[in-house]
Amino acid sequence: MSKPHIDLVNWYTRNKRDLAFRLNKDPYRIWISEIMAQQTQIDTLIPYYNRWMEQYPTLNDLFDAEEDDLYRLWEGLGYYSRVRNIQKAALQIKHEHDGIFPHSKERILQLSGIGDYTSAAIASICFDEKQAAIDGNVKRVMSRLFLLDETELKKEFTQIIKQKIETWMEDVSPGDLTQALMELGALICTKQAKCEICPLRDYCSARKSDVVKDYPKAAKQLVKQSEQIDVVLLINEKGQFALTLEHNDSLMQGYYRLPTLSQANITEYKKDVTLRHVFSHKIWDVKFHIAHINMSDDFKWVNYQESLELPIITLHRRWLKQKAAFIQSQDML
Ligand code: SF4
């Protein structure tokens, strides 16, 4: 008798994408890919992943990594606490686990920056532990397959799908099932579901009832707060510009940024442009200004070429790239 999970795993075996992190089941490689994949599309993360693995091909290589180097490799991926946590977790593995990646979900969960989903994903994929890894993709698939409404069921929703997946894991490889569910959610059971080519179409309640578009039921969206920020490109007499690590928000710690007007404490400046950066929970509208001043000890002064070696927050980097010719011309004045 055919069963949804067996058909799903068979489909995955035949159709899985040939992705860099599926090369083997090294937990280090899976861990980095899972952390990068949080809030990031697979196509976007692949070049970052490849650069990371070139620089730090094994867990051992990561133990002695320089913080700035890791931040630079991560620059542009966003959600920068992820890279800080990777470094903390690497040190935990080195000091508390004799340099060996822990082998069970329970112990993986103790590592910095690793939550329920990631620990279950690593434990099932790398060690075939029967642990359901439940992210947004998996929730979408399961809510459609069984017509489950998370907005009504709340916490019970996750318990129900966890139980179903872990029961399926009795019959198939837990690692294959985890990846098959992820792959189906990423390629077939997407927002615009491709039911006609789905291996679960004969089992799917939402498809049979013609309500696929209504699932998953949407939770109320939070209104994002917008923040106005004025920053300034301070250029000194040597043509260098100022960067700082000081700021009063908790975003992107360890990344350099241009100082704000109040940090610069100046009155004469020229406005350039306003650029917007949308985070998951807030919006920055950043006005960029330019001013010429004498050297001050409060900042790190760099020329354009030197700035390329430093981790710098994404929006500021974007503007600095636009102004590259102008900044470099200041050297020659
Ligand atoms: S049949 Fe359609 S809605 Fe159901 S699991 Fe497949 S893609 Fe998703």
Would you write up a description of this structure?
It is a single chain. The protein has 333 residues and is mostly helical. It has 2 domains: 4-214, Endonuclease III, domain 1, CATH 1.10.340.30; 225-330, Nucleoside Triphosphate Pyrophosphohydrolase (Alpha-Beta Complex), CATH 3.90.79.10. 46% of the residues lie in helices and 11% in strands. The protein is built from 17 helices and 5 strands. The strands form 2 sheets. Strands 1-4-3 form a 3-stranded mixed β-sheet. Strands 2-5 form a two-stranded antiparallel sheet. Helix 8 (116-127) crosses helix 12 (174-187). The longest helix is centred in the first third of the chain and has 16 residues, at 81-96. It is elongated, with a radius of gyration of 24 Å. The model has no long low-confidence stretch (mean pLDDT 92).
List the helices and strands and how they pair.
Elements: H1 4-15, H2 27-37, H3 42-55, H4 59-63, H5 67-74, H6 81-96, H7 105-108, H8 116-127, H9 136-145, H10 150-153, H11 155-168, H12 174-187, H13 205-208, E1 225-235, E2 241-243, H14 261-264, E3 270-278, E4 282-292, E5 300-302, H15 304-307, H16 314-322, H17 324-330
Parallel strand pairs: 1-4
Antiparallel strand pairs: 2-5, 3-4
Helix pairs in contact: 1-12, 2-3, 2-8, 8-12, 9-12
The protein binds iron/sulfur cluster (SF4).
Iron/sulfur cluster is lined by residues 141, 144-145, 188-189, 193-195, 198, 200-201, 204, 206-207, 212.
